[in-house]
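Same chain as my last thread, 427 residues:
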Amino acid sequence: MENSKYTTAEIAVKHIQSGDRVFLHGSAATPVHLIKAMQQRHEELKNVELVSITTLGDIDFNHPSWKNSFFFNSLFVSANTRSVINSGNGDYVPVFLSQIPKLFKEGFLPLDVAIVQVSPPDVHGFCSLGTSVDIARAAVDTAKHVIAQVNPQMPRTHGDGFIHIDKLNTLVWHDAALPEVDYSAKVSSAMVTIGQHIASLVEDGATLQLGIGGIPDQVLKNLGNHKNLGLHTEMLSDGVIPLIQSGVINNSLKKINRGKSITSFMIGTKKLYDFVNDNPGIRVMDISYANDTSIIRQNPNVTAINSAIELDLTGQVCADSMGTYQYSGIGGQMDFIHGASLSAGGKPIIALPSVTSKGISRIVPFLKEGAGVVTTRGHIHWVVTEYGKVNLFGQSFKQRAKALISLAHPDHREELERAYFERFKVL
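reply #2:
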């Protein structure tokens, strides 16, 4: 802490000026302390554009006081940004996660300031972006000014996240626990069954990609007897730990990054953050690498597991919105769905409970008006609900509609059959 760049959060955020575009580090690396200090300057600031992907922590981005000071332009919507993004004081950029670094590097979204959270420097002066390298690497490389929250509780991870302290303009020491999310806490019986169905599709030697939520963790719980699995994913959570420790995930059959688990960010509990700390078996990479289809496809039997909000009878997947209400984002779903489909023996999987928590069917005749298509009907392959699994690849409209109706909740199948008849004029 002897470095002259160290200062207080209040002084550090004075580098932000009205009209600036400011990047906020996301996921478990969200620099809550610095963000709140920036928000306290709201009376001095006008039209500051904030850009980020998933942010975690107790932060209010939609306070009435922020209205003229901050505009949140989200690249992936999260729970604490959903309200502001769907208001007049926010917006959303539809973009593949893999291409966000290009927005920064090629001047589509040039950054004035990047606010990040890093580990303390090692003996060579290198800090680590820790739990979230993803788009933060490109942000740090391109922003005019980088403010870093230096946190001794941030794990030092291997991969693309090392940044020499000389590249960081302003430092703030703040010792605080990282935000935690326990995906095993909210598990339904449908998720348990879906996890079993998907696990039956995973072959020995497969390379796994897992999205966010309870279903991926349920899949992992059913893979204990598998052999020689690999991991190349955009994110990981606690569920991978026992499989890596037991040797089920050993990455021995991967064609690229053999022996290494690849991710771009992580969200989980302190157990996960401790597990990845200085762990050479896990490489946390720039999202433009981790989610590059040409990289993904090189591994064998890539099994990509992603979710959906709703799915129409032709196979169009809405995964980011509820009608016009922006709920999340495109993220990396298409990066991995397409990458897996190009992998030798690959299996792109869309998994979803058949109904919402209110009993509304997620398999529908037509997507809601205004809904976004994340995975097209040309990219869809496997679909899994608690009622089974089907492969739509090569199937016609009529064939895939019938197959999807078989996966719907029994209470909704008659209604879907009527919609099928009205559309196709056959039984």
